[in-house]
Amino acid sequence: MEIRIGIINSARELTFESNQTASEIEAIVSKALESDAKFFKLTDEKQRDFIVPVATLAYVEVGSETSRRVGFVA
Questions:
Q1: Which domain holds residue 37?
Q2: Looking at the chain, which terminus has fewer C-beta neighbours within 10 angstroms, N or C?
Q3: Are 24 and 42 in contact, with CB atoms under 8 Å apart?
Q4: Which DSSP category does 4 fall into?
């Protein structure tokens, strides 16, 4: 699933694919926001960690969990 994270005062957004479910990502971000944590951590498909500071978080967009279609569209 594709995840896009917007950072305040940054023209670019952080975009990566993750094997985590939408509910897992929502729980991680919500817990960080509610507990006044300094950062939260998400993991991509290649097991790389992304540490995002909560103070500069603008938005988190979680893509759909549908698989990609393969082939040509007529």
A1: 2-62
A2: C
A3: no
A4: E
